[in-house]
Design a protein that fits this description.
The chain is α/β, with parallel strands linked by helices and 164 residues long. It is 50% helix and 15% strand. Helix 2 (50-66) links the parallel strand 1 (39-45) and strand 2 (69-75).
């Protein structure tokens, strides 16, 4: 009777220890978010593209208004032009700030052309890719929808003309 209790408690402790080890191992595979409800957005773009810079500006405004969104702008170009609040994608990868899944996604997207978006929520990850998932559709599905208007480009063009 006494041996059966010891065996029972031993098996429970072994199971708990294994669950703890599995939890620690899986922890690095989850998207990094500061606390529940926080969203991390990675936007890979080329600062030489006015359309992509405009999209980055929209994401910045959306992140500021939401408050719980961390936006990381990743520039394909080095050095990053002044006035653009982004960092070099290569420097970001080298810094070790991204988790393994984000690093893999960035490295894959750097081999492709165009911009790319990855939205990391505590419960899931949304990402644009070359398989038909556009940036706008990804942003909308992730709850950080972008609103593009003709005013964005035409107004910017008029402002540039005024200063010439």
């Amino acid at each position: 009777m006494h041996r059966t209790r010891i065996s029972f408690f031993r098996s429970i402790l072994c199971g708990l220890a294994m669950a703890l080890v599995a939890g620690v191992l899986v922890q690095d595979l989850r998207p990094a978010a500061a606390s529940p409800g926080d969203i991390r957005v990675l936007y890979l773009f080329a600062p030489s593209s006015p359309e992509q810079v405009s999209r980055f500006g929209q994401l910045e405004r959306r992140a500021r208004s939401a408050g719980s969104v961390e936006l990381i702008g990743l520039s394909r170009e080095e050095p990053v032009p002044e006035g653009i609040g982004a960092i070099s994608a290569m420097h970001y990868l080298a810094s070790g700030a991204a988790d393994a899944a984000s690093r893999r996604w960035i490295a894959e997207r750097l081999r492709e052309r165009g911009d790319a978006l990855r939205v990391e929520r505590p419960e899931t990850v949304y990402a644009s890719d070359g398989e038909g998932r556009s940036i706008e559709a990804t942003a909308a599905r992730a709850g950080v929808a972008l609103v593009t208007t003709d005013i964005d480009f035409s107004t910017w063009g008029k402002v540039k003309d005024l200063f010439r």
